[in-house]
């Protein structure tokens, strides 16, 4: 894997875990994600959007890809949030992160990308580990949550594929941040409408500390943009599969810092399978 892609994805994983930890330590009524996205849109949104408008290689295709990304991103946040209301994160999130196989399928079938056998094997092993980790979770209403989590995985595969196709027309990281801003704006609007539908309010009832919301927003937007940046150098399925290292890191933190020891042997075994898949991915071309 090229060094630039490896560094970008490593930073993306660390930022992803960081904002999830910030969300974990926030009152659920505060809807951390809503406030974090709002913080991104206020602080980074204006100048990144200006860069996108001025410097992107605009074409009808790029506009179409941006529209697809926005629609899929909104679907991801809505279905993931609905799944979380029905089952715990350890069940829902790994399923939602099983998208790399779908990404590989779409890019191979429809866009002519060729992945070696080792690449397919690495992705399959990593996804198997992710699904094994989901199987260790208990509680909630799996029969209602799993279809929603699978819908979130499908949405991830769609916007990741469109991001890969769009990145060639997004010269520079600042422009890529602008692309992210547009998709996060649509996602934030979708979350706002969903909040209105469920709670009869236009915004959550409470708010997290401002510094935490700002930190979360910066991490969310950059984690997403860094994955797009890495797609300049490697297949989209590889980039998204590598970010599942965050699931392993978050699992280790949960078992050590938060003392979550339920079925820890099965969870460790699943995380080792994920790591094996990522190790194979490092040698794939």
Key terms:
single chain, 285 residues, mainly alpha, 13 helices, 0% strand, globular
What would you say about this model in short?
The protein is mostly helical and 285 residues long.
User: Got a strand count?
Assistant: 0
Q: Please state the structural category.
A: mainly alpha
Mean pLDDT: 92
How far the N terminus sits from the C terminus, by CA atoms, comes to: 7 Å
Query: What is the CA-atom radius of gyration, in angstroms?
Result: 18 Å
- What overall form do the CA principal axes indicate? globular
Order of helices and strands: HHHHHHHHHHHHH
Q: What percentage of residues falls in helices of 4 or more residues?
A: over 70%
Q: How many structural units, i.e. domains?
A: 1
Low-confidence stretches: none
| Count of DSSP H/I helices | 13
Strand content: under 5%
Which sheet architecture does the biggest sheet show?
A: none
Write up this protein.
This protein has about 280 residues and is mainly alpha-helical. The chain has helices at about 5-25, 30-45, 45-55, 60-85, 90-95, 100-110, 115-135, 140-165, 175-200, 210-230, 235-240, 245-255, 265-285. The radius of gyration is 18 Å and the shape is globular. The longest helix has 27 residues, at about 175-200. Helix 1 (about 5-25) packs antiparallel against helix 10 (about 210-230), helix 5 runs antiparallel to helix 7 and helix 7 (about 115-135) packs antiparallel against helix 13. The chain has one domain (about 5-285).
């Amino acid at each position: 894997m090229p060094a630039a892609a490896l560094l970008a994805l490593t930073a993306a994983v660390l930022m992803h875990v960081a904002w999830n930890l910030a969300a974990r330590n926030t009152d659920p009524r505060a809807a951390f994600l809503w406030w974090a996205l709002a913080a991104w849109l206020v602080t980074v949104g204006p100048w990144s959007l200006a860069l996108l408008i001025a410097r992107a290689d605009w074409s009808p295709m790029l506009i179409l890809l941006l529209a697809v990304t926005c629609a899929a991103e909104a679907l991801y946040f809505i279905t993931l949030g609905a799944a979380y209301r029905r089952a715990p994160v350890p069940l829902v999130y790994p399923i939602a992160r099983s998208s790399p196989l779908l990404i590989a399928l779409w890019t191979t079938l429809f866009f002519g990308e060729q992945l070696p056998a080792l690449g397919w094997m690495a992705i399959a092993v990593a996804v198997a580990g992710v699904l094994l980790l989901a199987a260790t979770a208990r509680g909630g209403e799996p029969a209602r949550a799993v279809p929603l989590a699978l819908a979130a995985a499908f949405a991830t595969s769609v916007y990741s594929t469109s991001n890969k196709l769009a990145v060639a027309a997004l010269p520079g990281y600042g422009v890529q941040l602008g692309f992210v801003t547009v998709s996060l704006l649509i996602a934030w609007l979708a979350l706002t409408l969903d909040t209105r539908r469920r709670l009869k309010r236009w915004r959550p009832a409470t708010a997290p500390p401002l510094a935490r919301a700002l930190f979360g927003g910066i991490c969310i937007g950059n984690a997403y943009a860094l994955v797009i940046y890495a797609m300049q150098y490697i297949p989209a399925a590889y980039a998204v599969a590598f970010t599942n290292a965050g699931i392993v890191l978050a699992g280790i933190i949960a078992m050590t810092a938060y003392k979550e020891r339920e079925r820890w042997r099965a969870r460790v075994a699943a995380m080792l399978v994920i790591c094996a898949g990522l190790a194979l991915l490092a040698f794939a071309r």
